[in-house]
Amino acid sequence: MKIFLDTANLEEIKTACEWGVVDGVTTNPTLLAREIERTGKKPKDILVEICEMVKGPVSAEVTALDAEGIYKEGKELASLSPYIAIKVPMTVEGLKATRKLREEGIMTNMTLVFSLNQAVLAAKVGSNFVSPFIGRLDDIGHRGMDLIRDIMQVYENYGFGTEVIVASVRHPEHVYQAALYGADIVTMPFRVFEKLVQHKLTDVGIERFLSDWERVKDKIK
Ligand code: E4P
User: What average pLDDT is seen over the chain?
Assistant: First the structure.
């Protein structure tokens, strides 16, 4: 399972990359706006910096809504780095633009996906990635993870090559379930990422090993 960070925060990305387990990053206009406000940097510069740190797929979302506009914006963003994947909203116009971008070999990620049928359409236009938003489904009383289970099953039924990015992740339990369902990728905020390594028993275990070792340290000199 690949681990992506769902942030545009350069500090968080730098810290997480040092762990050696980050395969990619997803951004969206909200996350990018937050980083522009925090640093005063230009969006394109932020994206290039992220690509240089991550050296894996970095999703950059278009803001145009018509197919021609999405295509043009996508081409421009893709010229920033070969690591850029164009994040396109799941609409009719988005499908048309994704097909066109893919024909030109540009990486795409169809986003704001909330149903199995939408995920099938993303695969049909040859998108590299599809992003079902499970947390937002949970928020309205649906079972977000059921959608991941179903998409994984249907993609397997038909041998679709689109990789499933579990998105809108709220807590480590989402990551656990995504792994059980065989999701290709989970993208998560830094606050969830840093919780993955934590376990009380690991801390207690280290403490006990060190105190036991302390008792004999002088005897082995
Ligand atoms: C995914 O690509 C999106 O950027 C993200 O996961 C949305 O998450 P949210 O529902 O927490 O805003």
Answer: 98
Reference 116, options 67, 157, 174; nearest CA is 157
How confident is the model over 102-125, as pLDDT tens digits? 999 999 999 999 999 999 999 999
Q: Given phi > 0 = left and psi -120 to 50 = alpha, else beta, which region is 112?
A: left
Does the Cβ of 131 fall within 6 Å of ligand 1? yes
Spacing, Cα 133 to ligand 1 middle (Å): 7
Ligand 1 atom with the smallest distance to the CA of 131 is: 2
Q: Which residue is catalytic, options 72, 87, 100, 219?
A: 87
pTM assigned to the model:
0.96
The 3-state DSSP class for residue 128 equals coil
Which of 9, 133, 169 is the best mutation target for the ligand 1 pocket, counting ligand atoms within 8 Å of the beta carbon and taking the most?
133
Q: Is 32 in the pocket of ligand 1 (CB under 6 A)?
A: no
Distance from chain centroid for Cα 206: 32
Domain with 40 in it: what CATH number?
A: 3.20.20.70
Q: How many domains does the chain have?
A: 1
- Domain extent at residue 48: 2-220
